[in-house]
């Protein structure tokens, strides 16, 4: 059998990369090396269990994941499948029970709280599903906080600019209790952006936003990725947003699998393949409306997302 190899120098050449993986699977005779790829995140055999009285709950099981710097990755999966639990560990907010997590060569699993907090301040942005704003601080002060912790000079001006970008320029002095859920979420987004993190974890970043604001926020996230090479790891139930990412993975009862968006629509993770978004979205558009109507999760129905990315 003839083995063909290709060295891809541009780590952003994702569509080519995905196609080649497809050929690889079909022929089992193709290898790809990516010369420039740098893993910003590496996860090995990660598990998370919690003890509840006499029972042990296994929340995450044997998670393995590599994320290249500058990539965009969507984690999708049903409610309670472990997405937030995983994101918290990847961001160094929580520790795994067993296994290894490397973030920019830092062994997060071996770090104490103080070390993890320093790594987070220097490299990580996090948009929380529950916002987690400081109630005693105004919107402006909430956004400034990480910049002040990282000793940035122009924290106030940066925070004002970011709040203006998320359409909250006239809400700077409002406290979280004076803001709607969607407004609080946008403060959380501005806060996550301020230190221009190397990697941004976003847990349902558009979950509380109307579709127009959600699109705007998603555009901001992907702009950040393009402008600064910020790696994005998004948890979302919005398959249109997931499809805008270069890669999708599926959480299912604490296990992670590479997936195509169509697998999610069909509610199956049997086919474990790397996502090829263009093809996936095209397939969805060509799927008859009745078929999609049978899939309540089929939010890609009639999508125009193919041209949005
Ligand atoms: N500290 C804890 N103690 C016990 N169970 C927990 C704990 N934290 C999470 N769980 C459970 O772990 C499971 C995964 O929770 P997680 O918040 O990660 O789910 P999720 O995929 O983010 O769900 P959603 O889409 O609803 O946000 C859930 O069943 C949850 O009840
Ligand atoms: Mg969650």
Q: Any ligands, ions or cofactors bound here, and which? A: adenosine-5'-triphosphate, magnesium ion
Number of strands: 12
- % residues in beta strands: 15-25%
**Largest sheet, spatial ordering of strands:** 8-9-10-5-11-12
What is the residue-averaged pLDDT? 78
Distance between the termini: 38 Å
Our count of domains comes out at 2
Task: Give the H and E element order.
Answer: EHEEEEHEEHEHHHEHEHEEHHH
Tally of DSSP helical segments: 11
- Would you identify the CATH H-level superfamily of the largest domain? P-loop containing nucleotide triphosphate hydrolases
Apparent shape: globular
**Can you tell me the CATH architecture of the largest domain?**
3-Layer(aba) Sandwich
If you consult CATH, what is the topology of the largest domain? Rossmann fold
Question: How many whole angstroms does the radius of gyration measure?
Answer: 20 Å
Main sheet overview: 6 strands, mixed
The helix fraction, in percent, is 25-40%
């Amino acid at each position: 059998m003839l083995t063909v190899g290709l060295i891809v120098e541009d780590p952003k050449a994702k569509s080519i990369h995905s196609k080649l993986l497809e050929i690889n699977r079909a022929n089992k005779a193709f290898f790809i090396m990516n010369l420039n790829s740098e893993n910003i995140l590496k996860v090995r055999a990660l598990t998370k269990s919690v003890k509840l009285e006499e029972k042990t709950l296994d929340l995450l099981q044997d998670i393995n994941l590599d994320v290249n710097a500058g990539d965009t990755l969507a984690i999708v999966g049903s409610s309670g499948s472990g997405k937030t639990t995983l994101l918290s560990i990847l961001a160094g907010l929580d520790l795994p029970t067993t296994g290894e997590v490397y973030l920019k060569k830092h062994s997060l699993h071996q770090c104490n709280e103080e070390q993890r907090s320093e790594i987070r301040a220097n490299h990580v942005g996090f948009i929380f599903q529950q916002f987690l704003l400081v109630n005693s601080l105004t919107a402006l002060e909430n956004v400034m906080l990480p910049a002040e912790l990282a000793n940035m000079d122009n924290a106030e001006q940066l925070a004002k600019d970011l709040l203006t970008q998320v359409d909250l320029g006239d809400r700077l002095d409002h406290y979280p209790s004076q803001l709607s859920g969607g407004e609080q979420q946008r403060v959380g987004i501005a806060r996550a952006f301020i230190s221009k993190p190397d990697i941004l974890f976003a847990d349902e970043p558009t979950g509380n936003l109307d579709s127009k604001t959600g699109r705007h926020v998603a555009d901001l996230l992907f702009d950040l990725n393009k402008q600064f090479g910020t790696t994005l790891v998004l948890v979302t139930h919005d398959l249109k947003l997931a499809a805008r990412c270069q890669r999708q993975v599926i959480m299912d009862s604490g296990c992670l699998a590479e997936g195509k968006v169509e697998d999610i629509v069909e509610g199956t993770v049997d086919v474990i393949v790397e996502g090829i978004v263009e093809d996936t979205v095209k397939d969805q558009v060509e799927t008859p409306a009745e078929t999609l109507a049978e899939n309540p999760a089929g939010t890609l129905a009639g999508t125009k997302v193919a041209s949005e990315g």
